[in-house]
Model the fold of this input.
Amino acid sequence: MEWADEGIVLGTRRHGEANVIVEVMTAGHGRHLGMVRGGAGRRLRPILQPGNSVGVVWRARLDEHLGTFTVEGLDLRAATFLAHAHALAGISHIAALCRLLPERDPHPSVHAAVCSLVAHMDDPVVTGALIVRFELAMLAELGFGLDLESCAATGTREDLAYVSPKSGRAVCRSAGAPWHDRLLPLPRFVIATPAGTPSVEELTQGFAVTGFFLERHVLQPRGINIADVRETLIAAVTRAGAASAA
Done:
């Protein structure tokens, strides 16, 4: 069995003295693991850092085997993440979200979104906005997509300001005003095209929306806890965003 693809490194773990098991998010083969011989050595270690783009060739005797990767570095951007707390937390959170998907199940739109994210992680506010939208996309991939196209009460597409925590549907400002304390604020950047640059308050609201539905529909039923890395990401993004605004 053999195939070649391009992917983003999500993580690694040691396998024996010199080898590592590498996890990549690929375009055509989804989230895939494979062993890299000598991956713990000085030559390959910089290539296998999370966030790097790599070309991989996977080989195995049978399809269900772990198999081995031969890797080639394409864009070794991970070194630039070291100076930015939001980037380090961001790639860890992205990897945790990708692990919600079944292994070896192709999700080309998720791969494309991850590629876009890791290429734009120099700006903390842009990173935060993209990750909120990525979380929304992951909810949809997992079968729990939100309906933010029109108001659940009136059908209008104008002035959508809230999200119903019960239905996951958008609610316009006028219809939601009497129950605003029971609804989740819907920041404009989540649904606007182009998204624009959100404020720190809007980023916080966006993370609150996606966090609520991720926890209720995905994480809690599976007994998964990614709160620590997500809170680290949010804190880093909002802190950097507030400093930039000041």
Remarks:
- The chain has a mean pLDDT of 94.
- Helices lie at 78-81, 85-98, 108-119, 124-141, 173-176, 188-191, 200-222, 227-245.
- The chain has eight helices and nine strands.
- The longest strand covers residues 2-15.
